[in-house]
Structures are given as C-alpha cells and as structure tokens.
TrEMBL record:
GO terms for cellular component: dendrite. It holds the Pfam family Neurochondrin. Belongs to the neurochondrin family. It comes from Pyxicephalus adspersus (African bullfrog). This is Neurochondrin. One of its GO terms (biological process) is regulation of neuronal synaptic plasticity.
Length: 722
C-alpha cells in the first residue's frame, strides 16, 4: 500500500510543477530570476487547492523580505504594467492568509494598511486593470479576521473605515466589504465606532436611505443587517444626522409592515424595530405626522403581539422562534410604557391605547400560559428569563387584569427567582477563574443574569399591597429571599471593583424597589415583623448601611427609602438587641440629617417675604421621595417614646431648634398643611418624651407657633404639660 502511495502523489502534475517552481525560486541568483520563478509559483497557487504543508513550503521559499519588496516597490519591470509587482505580492499574501497560523504573523499584520488602501481605491488605474488585486486583498482580510486576535488588529488598523469607503464608492468587491463589516461590528461595536465614527456615520446614512427607497428584496436584506450598523445609544437621537437616519428607518419599516409578508420578510423588520426600541424606547419613532406615528406604533405592537401568541399558544412551541419572540417582547415592552405615559399631546389616542392594552393583555396571557408549561429543566434557558422580564414590565403597570392567572403563576415565579439567584450566588462564590468557566459552560454564554428578581420587583411592589398575592408571597418565602437579595445589591452598589455605572444604577433601583415591598409588608403585616428573624437581619443591614450611604451625593431617593424603612421597622422592634447596639445611634443621626435638611427659608422675589422651600437636592427627587419623607417623620415620631436616648439625640443634633426657628422665620401660608401635620406630631412626641425638648419648644414660642400654624393638638399638649 505504502509503495503505491508515493508514485501516486508524485504523479500529480500540479504538485510536480509547484515543486519545480519552488526549486527554481530557491536557486534564483537575482531579482529577475526570482521574479520569473515567482510568476510560475503564483500560477500554480491559483491553479490548485493547497494544503497547509505546501503553503508553508511556499512561505519558506519566498520569505517576507522579497514579498515586502513586491508590495512596496515604487518601480516596475521593463515592459510590465506598474501594478504587476503589487498584484503578485497580494496573490502570495492571500495564499498565506488562508492558513490561520500565518494569517496572524506580524509580517502579515503589518500589511493591513496596504490591504485597506487596495480595497478602498476605486479610481486607481491598477484596480481598473487588475480586479484580482482587490479579490486577493479581501481574501487576506478574511483570513486575518478568522485568525486569533485578527479582528482586534483590523479594527485598530483602520480597516473599518476602508471597508465603509469601499461600500460607499461601490468599489470592486463592495459586497465583501459589507460582509466583513458585519463581522467586525458584531465583535467590536464600540471600538469600531470610536475608531471610525465618521465613515460608519456616512455608511449608516446611506444604508438607511437605501432601506427607505428600495422596493425589492434588498429591503428585507437591509432590514436584516441594519441592526449591526446602529451606533451605541444615544447617538441617533442626539444628532441631526442620526434623526435623519431614524426618519428613514421609520418610513421604511412602515412601508414594509403595512404589506402582507411571509415569515422570512416579517422577521427582519420586527427585529429591526425591536433593536431600535431596546436602545431608544419610543423616541426613535420620528414620523412627523403624529397620527401616522400613532398608527405605526399600533401596527408594530399589534404585529408583535400576534407573533407572540402564534408562537407560545402552540401546543408544541418551536424553539427556533425564540429569537423573534424575544425581539417582539422588546416591542411590547415599549408599547406598555407608551400606554402608561401621560404626555401632552399624547402619541396614542385613547381608543388606540385601549386597543393596544387589549392585545398586550392577550400576549401576556400567552406568556403566562407558556410559563405554566415550563419544566424545571428549562430554568437556565435565557428565553424563560425573557418571558419573565416582559411579564414583570406588564405587572408593574397592570395587576387587575388576569388576576387569577397571575396568582396561579406566582409560586412558579417565586421558585424561578430563587433558583436563578441561588445559581448566581453559587457562581459568584467560586474563585474567579472557576466562575468564568462556569459561565461559559452554562446556557447563558458569557453572561450570567441570575436576576429575575430585578425584573419582578416593581410588580411585587404592587402585588404586596394586595391581600391575596401578598399571602402567597409571604408563604413562598419572598421576604427572606428579598433580604438576601438586598444585601447582595448593597454589596454590588458599594463594591470597589470596576463595575459599570449601569450596574450600580440597576443595583440602586433594585434596592429602592425592595424597600417598597418591605414597606408594604411592614404596614400591612405588622405582626410578621416581630415574628420573623429576617426583619431583624434587614434592620441590622439598614442600620449599618445608611450612615455609609448618606454622605454620597446623588442618591436621595435611596436614602429616603432606607431611612424610612429602617424607622418603620425600628418602631416595631424597639426592644430587640439590634437597636441596643452603638451603631444604632449612627443610623438615627443619619435619619435625622435626612429628615431635617429637607426645608429651608427663601426670600420671595416679589414680596420679599421668607417662604419655606425645598433644598435643591430634595426638590430634584421630591416626586419620588415626598411620601417617604412624610412617612419617615411619622415613623421617627413613633420611635421617640420607645427609645429613651433618642430625644436627647434630637436636641444634640439641633433639629428641634432649627425647625422652630424656620417656622418663626417663614410666612405661615407658605407651609403646606401636610408639613404642619407631621411636624405637630413630632413636636408633641418630643414634648411628652423629654423635659429638655419641652422646655426648648416653650422657650422658642411653641405655644404662639402652635396657634399661628393651627396646631391645636400641640397647643393643648403644651398647655396640659405646662
């Protein structure tokens, strides 16, 4: 057998010719002989499919020294066109680049500039005469792109700009330019835009115009690839050229979706709309006519809802449709948020809102039906998390519809939240290198969400306020789970690791929502607070955390949530060891600082009188925290008779003195009745609980102020004590 194989290989005329050419190349005594031999080699290279061994033989014979001279020489051989040397060099380079071990060789990578120049030079005579040069250049780029680290080198080397230019000029091979661009942008979108913003901008303008203009199958191809070319948010809505692109995309999508489409045509259009919705909400809908814009939004959301129902109500849902259904979820989420808006003039008419709410409800009903069928083995399926996310968005706005179905699904949702949180915790507990391997081996890919809780927290804020779902949340152990979750989010929020601002912001919002759920439980289930140990654990966490959080600016709403929740629990756990610790005073000092710094005196520019106003940092967040401030003052007042050391702390802080001074300075009519009511309760508790506080109130004209502000109960209290 072996004796037959050798002559067989030798009998291959292409291999024999190549071997002879390589022999001539090695024995060449000057450039002319070497060039002649090289011409023969390139003929063989083009005529045969080379294996890696043969390719390396050519590489060893030619070497990069002579190849560099071919590519960068400014002269030409007598009687030959001047582009011939470079063409020859590119053919050899393309041969080398088909081997990954050669494609990322430093001597190949330093040829990226000449490859860029070749593909983007439309008008050069050599390209008109020799299109194979461009083909070879694209083959080189594709070879480099496929090699380890090749994409990084291409993006850093400016290839994105040259590819854009090739498409914009419709240079030879521009179709290849688009294919390579898609790969580069998919892999390194932000760096590509940072390095080649101007060229990518011009390309996106052209692509969006073509998408709007085309009326053939190209329109659907463009719809499929356009998401890759969208820049990082919020560039499109912040620039005039970006808004022009959005207008073209809107108009093009509207034209597409108004027609009867087959699946392969409808899917790319819905995915493009979903991609824009994920980045921009509804602000990308820049159709100038408001009625047209409303109709387009209704059409887009209605089609998405139909797609969801068709996919999920099938007895055997197809996993092949998960990608498009997830895209539709983004569109429905935008629809939910748009229906909840109260803007003037509204994008949607009332009739349109009612229609959308109905179709969205039906789609969410399909999502709940699907989740009821989910087997436990699918807990790590990212599609299930996408379903839960959409359901969370809907339930955050609407808990009255499909109430029975929601209640039936709650145990599953709680189990799902707990499972993902525990999986995430187990992963985080591993050493970093082990954790990274676990992530890559899981169904999540490189990202482990582990945070279905975050998506459902706003819904739980509503559900925990209602008797029936609250009973289920408690019986399924949600308060204990949220206590652990709150601790984890606090660790994320205060971590010194290099985390993104988005991650910290998400942690902050999650903690605020957790506080909302716990406040509902504290108000409606007061006996539970004394019975369950997790409330003591939570109070300890709040006591330790608030003094750390307060000095940091820009977190007033979280401060309001944590201080108010801590005070509400404290009034029910006043006798527990948690409130006997030294750190407790630090918590109450922080709470006093938050409550006492809210209002100041300010001169009215018209009358010159002093009016009570909010401090700027409070004013900016007052819409989100005003109820918490009032509830916090009430809870603080309730704590005064329960903690003997608390009234002296108020005196020491100067809060009581500054409050009385403020009321004496400002015009009484400038103080809201609600503020008067909570301050009256505070003064009364201070006066009853502590002699020194009572004396200070009286010394600063407490009786007169009570009379002026209509604090009849305080006036009577002071008179009785006196």
């Amino acid at each position: 057998m072996s004796t037959k194989s050798k002559p067989c290989k030798a009998a291959n005329p292409e291999n024999s010719a190549l071997e002879r050419c390589l022999g001539v190349l090695k024995s060449a005594k000057n450039d002319s002989e070497q060039f002649a031999a090289l011409l023969l080699v390139t003929k063989c290279v083009q005529a045969s499919n080379l294996d890696d061994e043969t390719r390396h033989k050519i590489f060893d014979s030619v070497g990069f020294s002579f190849l560099n001279r071919l590519l960068f020489s400014k002269s030409s051989l007598d009687g030959c066109p001047e582009y011939l040397l470079r063409s020859l060099g590119l053919t050899l380079l393309a041969c080398f680049c088909t081997d990954p071990s050669l494609a990322n060789h430093p001597q190949v990578l330093n040829k990226i500039p000449i490859l860029n120049e070749t593909i983007s030079a439309l008008s050069q005579q050599e390209i008109k005469n020799e299109s194979s040069m461009v083909e070879d250049a694209y083959q080189c780029l594709m070879g480099i792109m496929a090699a380890a680290g090749g994409i990084t080198h291409l993006v850093s080397g400016g290839t994105v700009s040259s590819l854009c230019q090739a498409y914009l000029n419709h240079s030879p091979g521009w179709e290849n330019a688009l294919k390579i661009l898609i790969n580069l942008l998919n892999s390194m979108p932000e760096k590509s835009w940072k390095k080649s913003r101007r060229e990518l901008q011009l390309l996106l303008i052209k692509l969006s115009e073509e998408f709007n203009k085309h009326e053939d199958s190209n329109k659907f191809y463009l719809a499929e690839i356009l998401p890759v070319f969208l820049p990082p948010t919020p560039i499109l809505t912040e620039t005039s050229w970006g808004k022009d692109c959005l207008k073209h995309l809107c108009a093009g999508l509207f034209k597409v979706l108004r027609n009867r489409l087959i699946v392969s045509q409808r899917d790319p259009a819905l995915k493009l709309g979903a991609c824009l919705s994920q980045g921009y909400g509804s602000s990308w809908l820049l159709i100038e006519n408001r009625d047209e814009r409303g109709r387009f939004l209704c059409l887009l959301i209605s089609l998405a809802c139909v797609e969801i129902r068709m996919a999920l109500e099938d007895p055997n849902p197809l996993s092949s449709r998960h990608v498009i259904v997830t895209a539709c979820y983004s569109l429905v989420e935008m629809g939910i948020q748009e229906c909840a808006k109260e803007e003037e003039p509204p994008m949607l008419k009332e009739k349109q809102k009612l229609h959308l709410l109905q179709v969205i409800q039906e789609a969410c009903g399909a999502v709940m039906y699907y989740l009821q069928q989910v087997v436990w083995e699918k807990h790590e399926d990212p599609f299930v998390l996408a379903c839960v996310r959409l359901l969370g968005v809907w339930l955050a706005e609407e808990t009255d519809c499909l109430k029975q179905e929601v209640i039936q699904l709650l145990p599953f949702l709680v189990h799902y939240m707990r499972t993902l949180f525990q999986l995430g915790a187990a992963c985080r507990a591993q050493p970093k290198e082990v954790s990274e391997v676990a992530l890559l081996c899981s169904n999540w890919g490189a990202v482990w969400p582990g945070d279905a809780i975050r998506f459902l927290l706003p819904a739980m804020c509503h559900l925990s306020a209602e008797e029936a779902p609250r009973r289920i949340l408690i019986s399924e152990g949600v308060p204990s789970l949220l206590c652990d979750y709150f601790r984890h989010q606090w660790e994320v929020f205060t971590s010194k690791d290099d985390m993104s601002p988005e991650t910290r912001s998400e942690a902050e919002l999650s903690m605020q929502s957790c506080c909302g759920v716990f406040l509902n439980l504290v108000v409606t289930e007061a006996t539970l607070v004394g019975q369950e140990s997790y409330f003591r654990t939570l109070l300890k966490l709040l006591v330790d955390s608030l003094p750390i959080l307060l000095p940091n600016e820009g977190h007033m709403t979280l401060v309001a949530n944590m201080s108010t929740l801590g005070l509400m629990i404290s009034r029910l756990l006043a006798n527990t060891p948690v409130l006997q610790e030294e750190k407790t005073k630090d918590f109450f000092e922080a709470a006093i600082q938050f409550l006492s710094h809210s209002h100041v005196a300010s001169s009215d520019p018209d009358t010159g009188k002093l009016h009570i106003v909010l401090r700027e940092e409070y004013s900016n967040a007052w819409a989100d925290m005003s109820e918490l401030w009032f509830l916090g003052v009430q809870a603080f007042s309730a704590c005064l008779p329960l903690l003997s050391w608390l009234p002296p702390l108020v005196l020491e802080s100067g809060w009581l003195h500054s409050l009385l001074s403020l009321l004496g300075q400002v015009s009484p009519e400038s103080v809201d009745l609600e503020v008067v009511t909570v301050l009256q309760a505070l003064f009364m508790e201070l006066a009853r609980s502590n002699v020194s506080c009572r004396e200070l109130i009286q010394q600063q004209g407490g009786l007169e102020k009570a009379n002026v502000y209509g604090m009849a109960a305080l006036e009577q209290c002071l008179s009785e004590i006196h």
